[in-house]
Amino acid sequence: xxxxxxxxxxxxxxxxSRGGHEPDIARAATTCIEAGCGGITVHPRPDQRHIxxxxxxxxxxxxxxxxxxxxxxxxxxxxxxxYPGLIALCREVRPAQVTxxxxxxxxxxxxxxxxxxxxxxxxxxRPLIGELRELGCRVSLFVxxxxxxxxxATAIGAQRVEIYTGPYAEAFEDGHAAEQLALCVExxxxxxxxxxxxxxxxxxxxxxxxxxxxxxxxxxEVSIGxxxxxxxxxxxxxxTVRKYLQILR
Length: 249
Ligand SMILES: CC(=O)[C@@H](O)[C@H](O)COP(=O)(O)O
Ligand SMILES: NCC(=O)COP(=O)(O)O
Prior knowledge:
By secondary structure, the chain is of the alpha/beta class. It is built from ten helices and eight strands. The chain has one domain: Aldolase class I (TIM Barrel, Alpha-Beta Barrel).
């Protein structure tokens, strides 16, 4: 069973474009939950272009005891304005899972994972992972499709990795996904071999998800936002979530 976690960033993009409360994040989350999703993902960023700290708090209250809450983001990005930083938000709301992502300020979206072959990178992450685990959060690290150094991830406390599927999705669209898919599959295999559970995400869609899912045995979770919310414009949010769940059955 692969859990579907719906990323609501793009609902917040639309809302923020006008100010006000619509479309409403809580209503969108409730719709996804009632349609059967297993989790909700948000990726707050210091520039608050989409998910804001208050959204993180609202969703925490709404999701508790219902579905998994996955908060993604860069733990090293500085607090800015009323954005207190990723770790501070996690201290407040204690999500089920925190996915650490090494994206920089102002980056249009995530485009690479942590370099776990680098001891310096690992030592920066180690205390943060320790604190998050003490808070009761499961910790996942965003990694490249051809990630190296996975064998060190459990030693610093990580329990999962999320494989960055952007290159796979791009290759799929161009009709030659085999090479990128093989990288994801091999990374998943090596991660599982060292005791890490495997998540995947970025630019997954109804078109490319089934192939990825079939190729990675034991895929624990996919987090999907951009394509899913786009598809929902045509098909409705609940229907779209159900279609993803069909693919994951
Ligand atoms: C880690 C990842 O791939 C997603 O969280 C992606 O970065 C979505 O974030 P945006 O919606 O800000 O692009
Ligand atoms: N972790 C990936 C995610 O949450 C959603 O990414 P995308 O589907 O918006 O590209």
